[in-house]
Amino acid sequence: MAENLYSSKQEYFHKGYTRSYEFRIKQLKNLRDEIKKNEEEIINALTMDLGKPIFESYTAEIGVVYQELNHTIKNLKSWMNPKKVPTPVYLQPANSYIYSEPLGVVLIISPWNYPFQLAISPLIGAIAAGNCIILKPSNQSKEIEKIISKIISNIFEDNYISVVEGSGSSVVTPLIENYRFDHIFFTGSMNVGKKILELSAKHLTPVTLELGGKSPTIVHEDGDIDLAAKRITWAKFYNAGQTCVAPDYLLVHESKKETLIEKIKSYIEKYYGNNPQDSKNLGRIINEKRFDRLISLLDNTNILVGGDYNRETRFISPTLVDEVNINHPIMQEEIFGPLLPILTYGDISEVVDIVRKNPYPLALYLFTKDRMIEHYILDNLQFGGGCINHLITHVANSNLPFGGVGFSGIGKYHSKYTFDTFSHEKSVFKSMGTIDTNILYPPYNERNLTLAKKFL
Predict the structure, then answer these.
(1) CA angle 119, 121, 97 (to 5 degrees)
(2) pLDDT over 90 (residue 143)
(3) C-alpha dihedral over 273, 279, 280, 283, to 10 degrees?
């Protein structure tokens, strides 16, 4: 089964079916149409898997996919066109070009937290670049896994694009071990990312790893405290905190701590009411295993707000944790839930020291009006991407690349960057004349060397 899954796509690719603009644009439009037909089912599946509010399901899972599709459809022809680049005078007469070519058969492995969007978004780029694809959605979001499989089988030939279902260890491991994919795109945890990288090394398969990390939010003393509280509360508890770029912990200037905490408390009540468990604006934790892990992180902590939970419904209330020791387990790993530890600092240099204890976060957020503070943070800390005076919105700009650095990932994607990830840039030099200067060819002499030094 697996061999046919792979070999049929390799054969399909080598026959050249996927190379033309007409083929690619047709597949992208078919995908868009099929998603529209299944919008309601997608939203219902997200409710069943994660208890997502309808607004979050549409905006973060479906709407951004439409945005990606429309942008790609609009720009695909120009992305595919060969790019003429300058040719040095000493190589004239000639022209030089870059051709974007499809890689071949690629594997996309997507996670459970945004199970539709994070499967379809890289798929769009892989289709646009002209590849054949095996797509492995997370089996932890079971209802969305079914919908994705249905959508793909409805519109694509199996030897072009297909979905594999099941656990990662039983499906992904043998696929990577036994077949040489031309690219592997993985979104998930750092630990699994390491295993993907190790497995792919056997075949020298290039990988894109979209991982995570402990993304800090810094609120400096001159920042707009009300605006910071409003946006932190929204971004932290969006999707019940199960977002790879969610603010993982808060670093607030000691002079503004109490004010900020009170403001966040007020926004929690405003957004989710007096009893968040009854709110239709809060999602649920994906499963009991991850629920239990999150509750264990609250051991020996000072809970300021929240801390309420219901294992049966996998509900955890928005929770603020104060006076956190940097060595506490909640500060040792990515939280991935609605728990927000609060730390303070006096001097901005302390922020750099604290963030570097969990280096290379996927995102970083800073609230300040001071350009010197802004530049200090940008110049002294490495992170995938982020926002000044906002949170998580950088991922919605299709003109910005999205990806990590160091432990938070390898490579980047979104829009044209996804097309580039799934393409090979082939360099072609085309000589336009038959007359040679002969300085390139032996036997070499002083005149050859003098001329070479003049141009190089």
Answers:
(1) 130
(2) yes
(3) 120
Q: Which residue type is seen at 365?
A: Y
Residues contacting 327, CB < 8 A, separation 6+: none
Token output for 70: 């429309």
> Using CA atoms, how far apart are residues 427 and 98, in angstroms rounded to an integer?
5
Burial class of residue 326, CB neighbours in 10 A (0-12, 13-18, 19+): middle
Q: Which two tokens stand for residue 335?
A: 């939280």
Are 236 and 402 within 8 A, CB to CB? no
Q: How many CB atoms sit inside 10 A of residue 362's CB?
A: 27
- Cβ partners under 8 Å of residue 323, min gap 6: 302, 342
Residues with a catalytic annotation lie at 210, 244
**Which domains are delineated in the chain?**
2-211+406-428 (3.40.605.10), 216-396 (3.40.309.10)
Distance CA 271, CA 234 (A): 8
Cα–Cα distance measured from residue 143 to residue 261, given in angstroms and rounded to the nearest whole number: 37
Q: Using the predicted structure, report yes or no on whether residue 436 has a pLDDT greater than 80.
A: no
Residues 6+ apart with CB under 8 A from 359: 382, 406, 407
| pLDDT digits 0-9 by tens, 30-52 | 999 999 999 999 999 999 999 99
* Separation between Cα atoms, residue 32 and residue 110, nearest integer Å: 19
Q: Which residues have a Cβ under 8 Å from the Cβ of 198 and sit 6 or more positions away?
A: none
- CA dist 49 and 41 (Å) reads 12
Which contiguous run of DSSP H or E holds residue 334? none
SS3 382: coil
Give the mean pLDDT of 182-200.
96
HSE toward the beta carbon, residue 152, CA cutoff 13 A: 26
Predicted pLDDT of residue 4: 82
The whole-number pLDDT of residue 2 equals 61
Residue 136 has pLDDT above 70, yes or no: yes
Cα–Cα distance measured from residue 62 to residue 120, given in angstroms and rounded to the nearest whole number? 9
More confident residue, 425 or 456: 425
Please state, as a whole number, how many other Cβ atoms lie within 10 Å of the Cβ of residue 392. Answer: 22
Identify the pLDDT of residue 89.
86
Q: Which of 362, 342, 182 is nearest to 264 (CA)?
A: 342
Measured at the CA of 122, the angle between CA 389 and CA 397, to 5 degrees, comes to: 25
The DSSP element (H or E) to which 427 belongs, if any, is strand 423-431
Q: In degrees rounded to 5, what are phi and psi of residue 47?
A: -65, -45
Which distant-in-sequence residues (6+ apart) come within 8 Å of 122 by Cβ? 108, 110, 185, 187, 208, 413, 418, 421, 422
